[in-house]
Amino acid sequence: MNNRYHLTKGVINYPFFLFIALVTFFSCRREENLGLEVLPENNQVGVVVVDTFSIVARTEKRDSVRTDERGTMLAGYYNDPVFGSVNAKLYSQFVPEDEGLNLSDYILDSAVLTLRYDIDNGYLYTKSIVDSSDGIDPISLMVYELDQDLNIDSTYYHFQNAATKPTLLGSINNFTPNITDSIEVDSINEPASIRIRLDDAWAGDLLASGSMSTRDGLLSYMKGLAIVADSTMSGPGEGTILYLNPYSIYTRLTFYYRTRESASDPYEPETFELIIDPNTARFNHYETNHMGSEVEMAFGDENIGAEKLYLQGLGGTIFNFETTSFMEYFKERDAIINLVEFIVPVSEEYNTYAPMPAAYFKAYSENGQENFIVDQTETSHIDGAFDVSEMRYRFVITRFIQNVVLDYKEGIINNFGFAIVPTNEATFANRTVVHGYNPSSGDRIKMRVVYTPL
Predict the structure, then answer these.
(1) CA within 20 to 30 Å of 423's CA: 35, 43, 201, 370, which one?
(2) How far apart are alpha carbons 113 and 255 in whole angstroms?
(3) Beta partners for residue 451, in sequence order
(4) pTM above 0.70?
């Protein structure tokens, strides 16, 4: 694998396709005249290939991305020279790992928040194209207490914020994340993580409140924590966004204290931990600020879309396109449609930045709703993964296009435009610049149809 994509490994992951199947747009599966989706190379006599269908496309700002209870949490700030700045804030409840804490005679030593890097989905996003901590930009993180309740049954989107109390509980300033080396905690080596010491007075009040004896008691007293990055220290092309694992045993808020059973006994060191579990409410706020950037100029502009289009996670950008000429092309033709591909070539000009690892092909309904297509929900082989060797995304959309053509022949219009949307856009800061529908150089986005005339 090319090293520049190492930091976002393991992101092509589709555990939620069963849910997608429930919301598919074209659920009526049409089998008549439907041919093989991949024609054998030695049996292409009479096959016709067409890739000249007209397309019009434009970049659009993403309106809403759901970010609650994801398997990866993000925190950090990055100033992209093409897309603008991205600020990822994390809001999360913390709950007792074990209930029943009952302290009477004790001395608090410290409280430390530990955040484990997410090694499965990539440690971080930065301009660095390396497999170590060398070249990673420094970052500053600040911790505040939440001043509003979070609800595990609520839905939270990337544009939402949570109120915080004004007092700074702790911070780690201008540090360079070390994503490879272990850290020593209580004479034990733990995997690479961030440790932030929190305010002693705050921790002492929390411990003295007795609220940590139960989950509900704690959430009533201390609603959670916010982890916020300093957005003032990164110029264009600088910054780091960290990927964190909420479920790691090393992600925790640890209280270090000494206690004794009676006045005649010596104090003995103890710890008590607050954790994030599957029933802990949390979400990310993403502020994608495109103001003054190259991308801002492209929003809704079909002329710029002819040259370049932009994909960005974290509530950043998608691109929409229309193409109807294939419907007229097949209206008077009887054919077996063997294969339909939509090809999205990636611009080599920006290949020093890690691209979105995968994307979805979606179709709009008449009322403007964005929907998954039948190829994705029924066959699961639409692809959409970034092809490093070909520098492109490829979507197999044969069944969907076949259905659109058959409907059109019957006088039914089921083509209201399409969208290419980043996969895992709630948890990946990657971005991609792709060639438009009529670029001055390089390959263009195109629909390629392979069919057999009847």
Answers:
(1) 35
(2) 9
(3) 48, 337
(4) yes
